[in-house]
Automatic annotation (TrEMBL):
Its main location: membrane. The keyword Heme applies. It is a single-pass membrane protein. Heme binds at C462. Belongs to the cytochrome P450 family. PANTHER family: CYTOCHROME P450, FAMILY 712, SUBFAMILY A, POLYPEPTIDE 2 (PTHR24298:SF751), FLAVONOID 3'-MONOOXYGENASE-RELATED (PTHR24298). It comes from Arabis nemorensis. It is found in: Membrane. GO terms for cellular component: membrane. This is 3,9-dihydroxypterocarpan 6A-monooxygenase. One of its GO terms (molecular function) is oxidoreductase activity, acting on paired donors, with incorporation or reduction of molecular oxygen, NAD(P)H as one donor, and incorporation of one atom of oxygen.
Length: 529
C-alpha cells in the first residue's frame, strides 16, 4: 500500500467538514436573502449535496426524468455546482440559436487546476479573441472541406487495413473485439491527419499518443466527485492530480520532439498540397501577419485537445452503430442491399465517393447518434443577464442542455426509444431550397435543427462533425458490405452495460463477435486500393 505524503486525523477531518458546512450555509443564507429574481423550478435540495440523492447512475437519464415533473427549464444543484437544465427543443433553440452569442462560452467542469498548459485551452476557452481566432482557423484551414478531401487517402487506407485485419481473424476462426479495432483505426487516422510526416517515419507514434491520451483521460475522469464540492476541488487527496500532471508532461516531451522535427524539416517543405495539421499550426505560429500570435503551449494543447475530443467519441459511435445493426439484422440487410444497388455484386470496395448515394446508411448512423449521443449533455454559460421562458437568467449562469432527452422526446420522435432509421427518410425534404439528402443530412448533423443535437449546435457545435461523419460512414459501410456478423456463443444479440455518470446509453461491445466474408465478396483479392 502506498503511503500518503501527509497525515490527517479524525479531529482535523471533522473540523474541515464542519467549517465547510458553516461557510456553505452562510453563503446560502446571504445569497438567497439578496436574490429576488424569479428562478426556474426545481426539486427541493439537501444541504451540501444538493440534488445528488435524486440523480441515479446516469445523469442525462436522471435529468430527463426530473424534467417530466419540473418542466423544460429546471434549476438543479449537484454539490456546489448549480445549473439550469434545458430539456426541450424550443428552450434549446433560445440558447443555441436566438441567444447564441450570449451563451457562446462553455463552463468548465474538470480538473483544469492540474493542467500544465493552464490558459492554453481552446475547446473550453471563453468566448473571446483567442477562441474566435482558432474557430476561424479550424473552419477555413484545419477542417475546411478542401483539407478533409486531402485526407481521403488516409481514411480509405486505414479502413482497408481494418478489413484485412478482420479477414485474418475470420481465416483463423478468431473472435473480433471491435472496440480495440475501432480505437486503433481512429487513432491512426487522426495521427496521420495531425502529424502525417512524422507518422510515415515512425509508425509507433499513434501507439504512443493513444497510450498517453488514455492515461490522461483515465486520470481526468476520477475527479468527478471532488469537482462537485468547490472547497475540495484543489485538494489532491488521492494523488490523481500528480498522475495527471505526469501524463501531460509525458505528452509534452513527445510533442516537443515532434514539433522540433517539423521545424528542422522546413527546408524540405513539399508545398501546400502535402500540409498536415501541424504544418498549418506552425505556419500560423511563424506568420508575422497573423491576426493573433499563437504560443507554442497553445499549439501543443490544441493538438492534445484534438486527440482527447476525437478518439473515444468516434470509436464509441462506431461501436454503437455496429451494435444496433447486429442486434437488428433486418436493418443491416437493408443497408447491404443499398450498397449492392450502388456497387453491384462485385468485389470493388466502398469508397468515400460512393457515400452520398447511400441515404439508408446515413439514416442508420444518424439514428444511432440520436439514441446514443457521445455528448449527451451540452455545456454553456451565459455572458449577460437575460430572460428565458419568463425566468431571469443572470450572467455567469451555467447551463446543461440535455441532448439525450431532447433526441428522445416523444412529441418529436415517434417511438423514441426504437432504432428506426426509416424515420429520417420520410421527412427529408427541404421546402425552401432543393437539396440532396446528403446535403440535408450534413445540415442536420451539424445542429441546424435543435431537435437533433448529436454534434451540438451553434457557435460551439462540434468542429469535427464532417470528419467524424466520413469516418463513420466509410467504416460502417465497409464492414456491412464485406462481412456477415454474429455474436459468439449462445447469445444472438450484443450485451449492453448499464450507463453510469455522464453516459446516457451504457456501453456497447460487451460481447465477442465473429465475422465471415460475404459470399460474393473476395477480400483476399484486394492487395492494393
Amino acid at each position: 500500500m502506498v503511503a500518503m505524503n501527509f497525515d490527517i486525523n479524525y479531529t482535523s477531518c471533522s473540523y474541515l467538514f464542519f467549517t465547510f458546512i458553516t461557510i456553505f450555509l452562510l453563503h446560502r443564507l446571504f445569497s438567497s436573502s439578496g436574490s429576488h429574481h424569479r428562478l426556474p423550478p426545481g426539486p427541493r435540495g439537501l444541504p451540501v449535496i444538493g440534488h445528488m440523492h435524486l440523480l441515479r447512475s446516469s445523469l442525462p437519464r436522471s435529468l430527463q426524468a426530473l424534467a417530466h415533473t419540473y418542466g423544460p427549464l429546471m434549476n438543479i444543484r449537484i454539490g456546489s455546482l448549480r445549473v439550469l437544465v434545458v430539456s426541450d427543443s424550443d428552450t434549446a433553440k433560445q440558447i443555441l440559436k436566438t441567444h447564441d452569442p450570449d451563451f457562446a462560452s462553455k463552463f468548465v467542469f474538470g480538473p483544469r487546476q492540474f493542467n500544465v498548459y493552464k490558459g492554453a485551452e481552446f475547446f473550453n476557452a471563453p468566448y473571446g479573441p483567442y477562441w474566435r481566432f482558432m474557430k476561424k482557423l479550424c473552419m477555413t484551414k484545419l477542417f475546411a472541406g478542401y483539407q478533409l478531401d486531402r485526407f481521403v487517402d488516409i481514411r480509405e487506407e486505414e479502413t482497408l487495413a481494418l478489413l484485412r485485419s478482420l479477414v485474418e481473424k475470420s481465416r483463423n476462426g478468431e473472435a473480433c473485439d471491435l472496440g480495440l479495432e475501432f480505437t486503433a483505426l481512429t487513432t491512426k487516422i487522426l495521427s496521420k491527419m495531425v502529424m502525417g510526416k512524422r507518422c510515415r517515419q515512425n509508425s509507433n507514434i499513434p501507439i504512443e499518443i493513444r497510450k498517453i491520451v488514455s492515461d490522461i483521460m483515465a486520470c481526468a475522469t476520477k475527479f468527478g466527485f471532488m469537482e462537485l464540492f468547490g472547497p475540495l476541488r484543489d485538494l489532491d487527496v488521492f494523488g490523481n492530480g500528480k498522475r495527471l500532471r505526469s501524463s501531460i508532461w509525458r505528452y509534452d516531451e513527445l510533442i516537443e520532439k515532434i514539433l522540433k522535427e517539423y521545424e528542422d524539416d522546413k527546408s524540405n517543405d513539399d508545398g501546400e498540397k502535402d500540409k498536415d495539421i501541424v504544418d498549418i499550426l506552425l505556419d500560423t505560429y511563424n506568420d508575422p501577419k497573423a491576426e493573433l500570435k499563437l504560443t507554442m503551449n497553445q499549439i501543443k494543447f490544441f493538438i492534445l485537445e484534438l486527440f482527447m475530443a476525437s478518439l473515444d467519441t468516434t470509436s464509441a459511435a462506431l461501436q454503437w452503430t455496429m451494435t444496433e445493426l447486429i442486434n437488428n439484422q433486418d436493418i443491416l440487410g437493408k443497408m447491404r442491399e443499398e450498397i449492392k444497388s450502388i456497387l453491384g455484386n462485385t468485389n470493388r470496395l466502398l469508397k468515400e465517393s460512393d457515400l452520398q448515394k447511400l441515404p439508408y446508411l446515413q439514416a442508420a448512423i444518424k439514428e444511432t447518434l440520436r439514441l446514443h449521443p457521445v455528448g449527451p449533455l451540452l455545456r454553456r454559460e451565459s455572458n449577460r443577464d437575460m430572460n428565458i421562458n419568463g425566468y431571469n437568467v443572470k450572467s455567469g449562469t451555467k447551463i446543461f442542455i440535455n441532448a439525450y432527452g431532447i433526441m428522445r422526446d416523444p412529441t418529436t420522435y415517434k417511438d423514441p426509444d426504437k432504432f428506426m432509421p426509416e424515420r429520417f427518410l420520410e421527412v427529408e425534404q427541404n421546402t425552401e431550397r432543393k437539396m440532396s439528402y446528403y446535403q440535408q443530412y450534413m445540415l442536420e448533423l451539424k445542429g441546424q435543427y435543435v431537435n437533433y443535437l448529436a454534434f451540438g449546435s451553434g457557435r460551439r457545435g462540434c468542429l469535427g462533425a464532417s470528419h467524424a461523419s466520413l469516418v463513420l460512414s466509410l467504416t460502417i459501410g465497409s464492414l456491412v458490405q464485406c462481412f456477415n456478423w454474429t455474436v459468439k456463443g449462445d447469445e444472438d444479440k450484443i450485451k449492453i452495460k448499464l450507463p453510469t455518470g455522464f453516459s446516457a446509453s451504457g456501453t456497447a461491445g460487451g460481447s465477442s463477435l465473429m465475422c465471415s466474408p460475404e459470399l460474393y465478396f473476395d477480400p483476399f483479392a484486394h492487395q492494393t486500393k
